[in-house]
Amino acid sequence: MNEYPIILTLEQAAEMLQLSPRTVQRMVSKGKMPGRRIGGQWRFDREQLREWVRGAAVEPEKEMLTQAELIAREARRIGVDLPQTLIDLQQAAAKRKSSGDEED
Q: Which residues of the chain does CATH 1.10.1660 include?
């Protein structure tokens, strides 16, 4: 296959990078490679993969994080202990904002 489509499947991305599909899946799952899960299947932007191979970093916004990881990140950002629920986090943020000591 000389030219790959703009949007690649897991198998096409692996072939393009000359890696096993399992290696690609593991790397993208850990946020080390650009890719996205759509409908339970991995899809890759051909140009993003080319840029990544050339040394461009994976953008943090495109990482696939779990809800717990997102909550932990937000808790660190606003300086509160890890809450049990998202509601606890939102209430802590509202308290900090109303007291005027939240930094943006």
A: 7-59
